[in-house]
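Sorry to interrupt, but I need a hand with the structure work. Could you write out one complete protein record for me, on any chain you like? Just paste the record in under my message, thanks.

. . .
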Amino acid sequence: MKIKVFFLLIFAISMQLSAENSLKPWESGAFETGKYRNLFVELGYSESEVDNKLQEIFVSLFEGPDKVYFEVGDSMAYVSDIKNNDVRSEGMSYGMMTAVQLDKKEMFDRLWRWSKHFMQHQEGAMKGYFRWSCKIDGTPNSQGPASDGELFFITSLIFASNRWGNDTGIDYLSEAQFILNSSFEKTDGDRVTPLIHPEHKLITFVPTGFGSNFTDPSYHIPAFYEVWARWADDGRAEYWRECAKKSREFLQKAIHPETGLNPDYSNYDGSLLNSDRIIGDAFRFDSWRVPLNITIDYTWSAKDKEWQQNYGKTFQNFLYSQGIDTYVDQYNVDGSDVTEILGAGGFTALRHSLGLVSTSAAVSLVSTHDKKDDFVHKLWNAKHEPYEDGYFDAYFDGFLRLFSFMALSGNYKIITPKEEIHLYISFGQSNMEGSARIEAIDTLDISNRFLVMQAVDCPDLGRELGQWYKAVPPLVRCHTGLTPTDYFGRSLLETLPEHVKVGVINVSVGGCKIELFEKDNFEAYVETSPDWLKNMVKEYDGNPYQRLVDLANKATSEGAIIKGILIHQGESNTGDKDWPIKVKNVYDNILKDVGMQPNSVPLLAGEVVHEEQNGVCASMNEIINELPKYIPSAYVISSRGCGVARDNLHFSAEGYRTLGKRYAEQMILISNKNR
């Protein structure tokens, strides 16, 4: 009995510790873990209660009697700031973010079509940017943009591309890239500037005129730039990562260290604007978004977690000191009372606003404050209804309530693209098979995204024919050496989005002529070949070409996409002027047998060792360079200057590394050209 009690006690303690740990902020973000907390469930609400509550909040905002979403005709819809009777780029992009997060494609597409048709400038100085306000019939109230709209448009379009692809009527990724590329075209010649200030790498308040000289702390969501870096595919990944870093640094400067409050507007160095033109030095409506935005960045990235956790504690501590049921929605950043109250919708009053109640609860995901759970419960029990003076904000309060609830329930997520494998078929003779010794450097730092489909059984390596493995050399037969494909894959991955993997299939036979891969003639060639070559051919069940095609078809049946064919062969055909024709026949047959159209993927052919390096077969390069005349999609990869082995026939390990990188560089150029 004592033993039973002891184990029950241990179990109870472990459960208590587990619960306590689950309520602490996480140490890693969802970019790394793929996980999201449901703080409501952690605090005792059931999953069904949470799901029903989220649905209730969504319906009230988009379908109920106080909705802000309105469909127009068969294909469009808009979100209205009801109290101001207009349509804002902010609200349209918020609606699109809601739709993509909750997998509502029709809603997303309707909102985008309205935004593009009525709000987006398609030409002129402001090309790519959005009119920040329109009447509900689409008539512009203003021609100028507001940068937060663009921020959410871009991110939601990238997420839509990741979720639904780009071939269902709207090329979401191209639309996002159009905004980004248009922004970089701005030179300030027409008082229109880039969305991100070029010097400070911080988002502008508005990318025009006076508004480009300062920023709005509530526009700073560094995690969005992390999304752009991964999936915008605009060639600016490092720039966006730097913008994320700068944005986090800015927030530390702009937020008061003792209250956690920030101004609505700020200079780029984080100081108060101190402008007589606008009321922006206090914590007001825009500022309510900051705790939610920091929560999103923390939940997704956690790259500034120590400061963010302290921020959450500081911010909630200030509000708690003002009374958890009585804190108001406007303060000076030092926590003192404002001397001028900013009105909204024809009403001017300080309130315990639902929007701030919502975001102050969301920051509980970040906060280490001992009363953080109380904020979450307050949001759960909050009602979206008119205030005592009759003021009602269906729009701003509504969206902040929805977004905060989504964040707290683990439903405000990074939407990653479906995983892709870009497949490259490789064949040839010894220089593609690899004759150089594999060195330690060749087995280190290989990405899990670089894969090889095993071409033969290799029990000693723990590999089976037809299965995918991390591309640790050897990549051909069991005891072959380093190949160009090793560094082709490594180099190619550096330029590809994170959801893309590179897979290679390499079927090569040292010493063979191109005739070995002629599907109708290979048997006669093998019959007259020496025994050592016959023995290598046996490892491919006597037909290397068929093995190559069978593996490629297996890979594509599993979802891989053939992006190119690599060949390094010709030494054994030195002097054969018909070689380009023979290669063309092999290339055409491969495409036909894997179900692809003629010339649909590039053929990359490597040169043999050059004459100036005393290449034994150097004269073959003249013939190899004739290949593009016969195959429009063929490209020749120079081997000039690549390290050479002592036999002047094969390349050294360093030579294979260089040659592989050159294959990759050419493939990248082709991809960029076709983008």
User: Anything to note?
Assistant: Residues 653-674 form the longest helix (22 residues). The first strand starts at residue 69 and ends at 72.
